[in-house]
Amino acid sequence: MDADVIIVGAGPAGLLLAGELRLAGTTAITLEKRGKPSGESRGLGFTARTMEIFRQRDILKRFGEVTLSERGHFGGIPIDFSVLDGAEMAAKSVPQSHTERVLEDWALELGSEIRRGHEVTGFTEFANHVEVSVSGPQGAYKLQASYLVGADGGRSTIRKLGSFPFPGTESTMEMFLADVQGLDLEPRMIGEILPGGMVMVGHLPNDVTRLIVCERRGTPPKRTVPLEFQEVSQAWKRLTGVDISHGKPIWVSAFGNATRLVDMYSKGRVFLTGDSAHIHLPAGGQGMNVSLQDAMNLGWKLAAVCSGKAPLTLLESYNSERRPVGERLMLNTQAQGLLFLSGPEIQPLRELIRELTQIFHGD
């Protein structure tokens, strides 16, 4: 065997899984098709449960000083979490690129092996191991391990090669995300609902402004070319009347509200974790955080089984524990999407939920 576990994908979930395995003495090789980290901010900050995980593994201090927040929102409706005595508070405005650097450093210090520029092209499962075909800088080769984990995102190669059913709904709208320098915009941290859609503004370090733009324009066509900042700035002007075309884009991306969840998080010796198992509207900053929590749950279980400290049946609990979380994630993000991105027909529901949260807060 080349390793106990082969991990495909060196995003936050794959890196946390790699470190968690090494922490328990389990060998792992992480394969990432990109030659270097993307450097994109993408997911921002940590939810309360992720903060707990990072404290448990003594990782949180590696991020330096993080800004905590007692305030949040659900579909644009403000929520005050300070009413929860003793609850861990969320951290805000930590770019995903920084999270990946911290997790990669931690995993490497523990002895993890991370191979960048190595793309999985196939795998074959046997009774006692999995054989993985890889295309690397020096050509094609094969690896063998007891288990294979796909942590390779929403377009997961491992999910497709493993024929995991991935039912759900197609996108009915499109949302633009952009990190831009050189803008002077008022913060709209929980978003602003406008007649034609929704906009959100958040400030990041290094004079970077995070923009989120969503127009209510019907079902979007499938993109054949990458999103350009010009399209983002035009949508922003249509919604707000403000010209931001002078800004310097650092990163732009388009997302839909497609919602899909695999039938099972594992098949035999192959497991899926993070976005490879679930895709959804990026509402409430939950995608990266739930992915990290998936990886944590799977990591210690794989390590315990590989070391002989736990029976094979322990791995069955990964699906039984994490898939219900995925189901709840689908429900949560779909509900937020309705509240946030729908038109005036949803306003009575927004007002009712706002009143209920005020009762909960004791206002």
Q: Keyphrases for this structure?
A:
eight-stranded mixed sheet, FAD/NAD(P)-binding domain, 31% helix, 8 helices, Alpha-Beta Plaits, 363 residues
**Helix fraction bin:** 25-40%
For the report, how would you describe the main beta sheet?
Answer: 8 strands, mixed
Say which CATH homologous superfamily of the largest domain is assigned: FAD/NAD(P)-binding domain
The radius of gyration computed from the alpha-carbon positions, rounded to a whole number of angstroms, is 21 Å
Distance between the termini: 61 Å
Fill in the CATH topology of the largest domain: FAD/NAD(P)-binding domain
Task: Provide the domain count.
Answer: 2
Topology at a glance:
Blueprint: E1 3-8, H1 12-23, E2 28-32, E3 44-46, H2 48-56, E4 67-69, E5 71-74, E6 77-80, E7 90-95, H3 96-109, E8 113-116, E9 119-125, E10 130-136, E11 139-150, H4 157-161, E12 168-169, E13 174-181, E14 188-194, E15 197-204, E16 208-215, H5 229-240, E17 248-256, E18 259-261, E19 266-267, E20 270-272, E21 278-279, H6 287-306, H7 316-341, H8 347-361
What can you see in these coordinates?
With 363 residues, this protein is an alpha+beta fold. It folds into two domains: 3-168 and 259-339, FAD/NAD(P)-binding domain (3-Layer(bba) Sandwich); 173-256, Alpha-Beta Plaits, CATH 3.30.70.2450. The chain is 31% helix and 31% strand. The strands form five sheets. Strands 1, 2, 8, 9, 10, 11, 19 and 20 form an eight-stranded mixed beta sheet that branches. Strands 14-15-16-13-17 form a five-stranded antiparallel beta sheet, covered by helices on one side. Helix 1 packs parallel to helix 3 and helix 6 packs antiparallel against helix 7. The chain starts with a strand and ends with a helix.
